[in-house]
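Input protein
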Amino acid sequence: MGDVFSSAPESRAVWEALPGPVLEAVGRCDAERLEVERARVAPRLRERIVKPVYSVADRFASWERLVRRMETGRPEGDDSFCPISAYGNDLDSRDSLDEVMNTLPAAAREGTLGTLLADLDARFHAASVPDPAGSLHPWIRPTKEHARLPGRWYRRPLRTPWDD
C-alpha cells in the first residue's frame, strides 16, 4: 500500500504533530478496526492482514482528498482516477469518522484532529450545493438507510471530478 497521506497534506501535517496519548487512542481504534477487517476474510488470510485498510488516518486522508477534488474539480497526484462511486465511499468513510471521534479522548476531539475535521467539513460544504432530491443516489450507495443519513449525503459537488 502506498502513502496513506498521498494528496492529503493537511492530514499528514496534523498526524505528524499528534501527541502521544492521542496517537495511542487512535491506535486502539485502528486495532478494533483491524479485527473487524480480519473477521471478514478466510481464516487462512487473517494473520496476513497486519494493519487496517480503513485506519483512522486513511479515513481522514480520504475525506481530505475528496474535499480537494471537489474544490478543484479534478483528482490530483496518485488519485487521478475518480469514479462517481468513490464519492459514496468517501461519504461513508466520513460518516465513520463521527463514530471514531466519539471514542477518542477530549484532547483529540477538541484538538487538532477535531479542528482538521471541522475545517474539512466546512470546505466540503463550501464546495457543494444542496441536493434535497438526492440526484446522485442512483450512483452512490450509502451503507445506512436514507432516513439516517447526515446532511452531507444531500449535497452534490459544485465541480464533479468524475465528469472528465
